[in-house]
Amino acid sequence: xxxxxxxxxxxxxxxxxxxxxxxxxSTLAGTLAGGFATAAxxxxxxxxxxxxPAPWTLEPGAPLLSPPYGVPxxxxxxxxxxxxxxxxxxxSGSSMTPLADLAGSITxxxxxxxxxxxxxxxxxxxxxxxxxxxLVREPRVFTVDDLLRFPSESHIYFLExxxxxxxEWNGPSGLPVQLTHGLLSCCEWTGVRLSTLLDETGVxxxxxxxxxxxxxxxxxxxxxPLDRIxxxxxxxxxxxxxxxxxxxxxxxRLIVPGFEGNTNIKWLRRLKLIxxxxxxxxxxxxxxxxxxDGYARQFxxxxxxxxxxxxxxxxxxxxxxxxxxxxxxxxxxxxxxRGVDVSDDGGHTWRAARLVGAVHDRALxxxxxxxxxxxxxxxxxxxxxxxxxxxxxxxxxxxxxxxLNTQYHYNAIQSWRVGADGxxxxx
Length: 427
Ligand SMILES: Nc1nc2c(c(=O)[nH]1)N[C@H]1C(S)=C(S)[C@@H](COP(=O)(O)O)O[C@H]1N2
Ligand SMILES: [Mo]
Fold this sequence. Notes:
Bound molecules: the ligand Nc1nc2c(c(=O)[nH]1)N[C@H]1C(S)=C(S)[C@@H](COP(=O)(O)O)O[C@H]1N2, molybdenum atom
Number of strands: 23
Low-confidence stretches: 1-39
Largest sheet: 5 strands, mixed
Shape: globular
Mean pLDDT: 91
Strand content: 25-35%
Distance between the termini: 21 Å
Oligomer: single chain
CATH superfamily of the domain at 109-279: Oxidoreductase, molybdopterin-binding domain
C-alpha cells in the first residue's frame, strides 16, 4: 500500500464512493492494471456458458419447523464460543465470541461471550424478584411482569470484560483474535430505564451510589456512582429481540453502557441506594489495577477506546497478492467512534478506514480499509479515536503508563503480522 503520510483525522471519515474508488485507483496505480489484482479475481466464464442446475434444486427441501427454533447451517458448525484455557472450577471462567467469523456489528445471542463467577443459575422468571431499597422513599419489589408494564427502550451497546485482551500485556501471545479480543460482544438490549424505576421508589438526596447484586451463586455485587450511570443505565429483559439467554442474565440484568463488563450485573435481584461505595470483593481485591508506583486504580469504570482487525487475522492465510479489504471493529466506553486508521507497516504510516453502517454511542462499529498486499511481510494495525478525541495507545505507551502488574483494561493497538507466505500471525 502506498500510504498517505498525513496525520490521522485530517480527512473526512466517510468518503463518498467516487473518492474511495479514486483513492484506491491512485493507491494501486502502477502496480495493477484494471484496479484489482488478477490473482484475486473470481473465476471467469464465457458469456454463453450453460449453468448446470445445482443438486439441491432437483428435490424439495426440508419442511417447516425443522427445527422450530432455528439454528445456523450445519456447515457453520465451527463458528462457536471457545475458551482460552480451562476454568479453575466448573461454573467459573469465560467463553469468547468468534469475532473473525462475524459480520457487521451485532453479536448473535448464541455467540455472545460468557463470564460467570459461579455458573449459570436456572431462574424461574415467575419466582424472580428485583428489590429496590436503601436510601429510597418507598422500597419496592418488582416481578418480571411488573417490569414489562413499564415503557421499554431498546439500545445497541457493546459489553467488554475488563480482562479482555489481558493475554497481550506481556507481548504477542500467538493467540487468534477470538482468544485475544473475544470477551467482547454487542447487541440490542431492551428493558426499562433505571431512572424510570427510581422514579417509582423515589431517591433520598443522600443516595450517591447504587449497589447492584446478582442472584447467582457468586451473588456478584458492585457499587456504581449514581450520577454517572443514571442517564443511560437499563434494567433489561431482552437481547436482540428475544428474552435474555440464561448465560447472559435471564430473566433480568443491569446494563451500564460503556462500563467494564463486571458492573453489568446478571440475574439482577437487588438495587440498593447507598451513600458511598460498599467496597465489595469485586472492587477491592478484584477489578483494581496495581500501577508501577504501588498505588492501585480503583473504580475504573469506562472501557477506553479500542479497535482490532478481525479479517485478516491470525489463522487466515492470504493466497493472492493484490486487493484485500481489511475489516475490524472499534468501540469506546465514552461515546461514539470518530474514526479508525489502519497501517500495514507497523504504525509508521496510517490511512483512514471507512466506518460501515450506523455509528452508535458505546456500540461496536465496523470499519473497512482498502489494502493492496504486495506479497511481502506486512504488519497490520488499527487505531481507534473516539468522540472525546481519545486515541487508542500503542502497547509501549500503555505499558509505560500502567506497568505490567495489572490484568485489566488492556486496550493497546494490536499487530497482526503477514508473512511472505501469506500466513497471518499474532507474533
Ligand atoms: N451476577 C453476576 N453478574 C455478572 C457476572 C457474574 O459472574 N455474576 N460476571 C460479570 C462479568 S465479569 C462480566 S464480563 C459480564 C459478562 O456478561 P456475559 O456473560 O453476558 O457476557 O457479566 C458480569 N455480571
Ligand atoms: Mo468480566
